[in-house]
Amino acid sequence: MMEKGESDVPMAEKIKTLSPVVLFCYNRVEYLIQTVMALRANELADQSDLIIFSDGPKNEQDAEKVRAVREYIHLIRGFRKVEIHESPVNKGLANSVIAGVTEVVNRYGKVIVLEDDLVTSPCFLRFMNEALDLYQDEERVCCIHGFSWNTKEKLPDTFFLRGADCWGWATWKRGWDLFEPSAEKLLASFRAKPELIPLFDFNGSYPYFKMLENQKKGTVDSWAIRWQASAFLADKLTLHSGNNLIQNIGLAGTHIRTEDHFPKITGNRLSFPIPEIPVKADERAYRLYADFFKSASPAFSLSGISGMLRRAAGKILPDSLKSFLHRCLGEENTWKGNYESLESAQKDAVGYDAANILEKVKEATKEVIAGNAVFERDSVLFFHEEPNYPLISSLLFAMHGKEELRLLDFGGSLGSVYFQNRKFLSCFRKISWEIVEQKHFTEAGRELLKDFPEIRFRQSVEEVFRNGKPDIALFSSVLQYLPDFQALLQKAMDAECDYILIDRTPVFTENEKRRYCIQHVSPNIYKGTYAVQIFGKNDFGNILNSRYQLLDDFLSYRLTIRLGISRDHAEYRGQLWKRKS
Hints:
The chain is of the alpha/beta class. It is 35% helix and 22% strand. The protein contains 21 helices and 22 strands.
């Protein structure tokens, strides 16, 4: 069923009535925007009702974040209907989910459930709706689930497991009616049949029963463990997709903390309709999950061991051995040195103007133009869609309701950001994507991309501003290489750009002092070294605060920048600033 290919059967012939989609959110607008943008890209989004439950703030510190979330959810479009519920008090996630799912499933008879850190495949809604239709009258099936783990062997296209699940799921009223909120009652049922406990725990590889005990103790508050236990004890089944339709972008706080084990979306294109399979638990899939949970256990995982070694090394080993250990663990540092200024670091770096870099980027861009790759970044080709959700969601949030986009892309290479995210730009009737680059890139871009009239190459920001102010000034992975970044941001402010969007820029999360060093490019990409600065956490605010308001500060790239043996680590951050009226 799940081979890559186009859908064979019209949707209207397969799906009787679309299920409403319920989305629970709290205070993470940067994740919520990504979740909504991915959901909007689903083929059934414009025919689906979206029902949003926004929880109230726990404290004064969270109040401003909740306010930002609520400002955003009132701007959401692209669905048949958007219904918003704003709680005046903080219910907590568990109570919010239980109450919200109960309310909606009682009204509609079925429901699809998401939280604000789950990015969906474009096929997610169709898979869930078709499965809800297919198994509507099958009493033993109580749940549909879109997430699958990264097992060593390939999972079946669809399969059943006993119990329920919680990352991108759906159910009917008859399924949710089984939900037992009392952990004490659930534990009593298990203790009456103790032979079920190892089966519940995937042969002892995952501590579901312990989580249920912690729920009773009050050390955790999880609706999901009670949902899983309720369905399991009732001997009900969940239909799973063997192709992962969910990317969890909010990994902090999850039970398995080894990020390598969290798969990316693999089901971007599925064949439909979903075939009907025998309604019984799949023993092979159960075994693959049990094996996966064992390998992902923090106590035994390689990343867990290496993490302990790194922490110990920082305390007891001499510098020479620390360096050797980093190399053995595959983390030889690419950020080196501690210079007095960016100019002094530039004396030891090759820089971006080396001829070999342009040639490699040109060849990669030709492959993108020819349709042999989706996009390129730093000459590396990407063959599957990997939109930069934090960037594109910030851009679309800023331009909500507007039909034309004029954007300054400073240091935009040969249109890398444009090609990576262009499928989300189709909402604009007219686009002017103006790239400011070095002279040899500008000349190459004008020749290579002459059949893309929306992309224009300029040699200075002044040339862009002479034709009127852009809506957005975008600085993606560029400010860190510029000695005069302050002057550049000042020019964008003076031109009164409505928004300034900074992306993929290294920033210390705690340190307020800037650091200058050399960044070494992997030899697998091209031979190159850059003088680079890692910004202090207040560097941009000190410049922009007087005339711009910070709307969002987000993690834009999941890579921690490690500076040798120093504990002064940084992250790739992004920021969206709006001009004050």
